[in-house]
Every structure is written in C-alpha cells, then in structure tokens.
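Morning run. Coffee first, then this:
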Amino acid sequence: SLNYANNILRISGSTTNIDEWINIENKKYYREINVGLIDKEKIVAKYENGTLKITLTKCNSDNITSNININ
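And here it is:
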C-alpha cells in the first residue's frame, strides 16, 4: 500500500509463502521517503511485471494526506 502524509510517502507490503518458494518466510516491510510537497490528486502508482512505478507531481499548496490506489 501507499500513503502520503506530512511530506512523507510510505510504501508498505508483505510477502507470502507459496509452495515453489518454500525457503522464503512471510514478511512485512515498509519504506518511508521524504518527498516534499506533492499534489496528492496527481499521485499515480502502477505495479506491473514485478515493478512498482510511482509518479509524483510537486506543488506549492499544502495537500496534507492521501491514500493511493495501486493499479
């Protein structure tokens, strides 16, 4: 999931164990990045072929909090 609040973009997710990956444990992880003031209405996230692409547009207004859908 993605969350933007107070100039911080938080990316979080988890892994789950499936039969072909027996040696991989289920884990939760996250990363927080200070991205500055971002236009929350223009945040776009797309997950394709194992890659997460996030597009951010800087702005001068104070858009404080937003949850972002991943397509």
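The two ends are 11 Å apart (CA to CA). Good start to the day.
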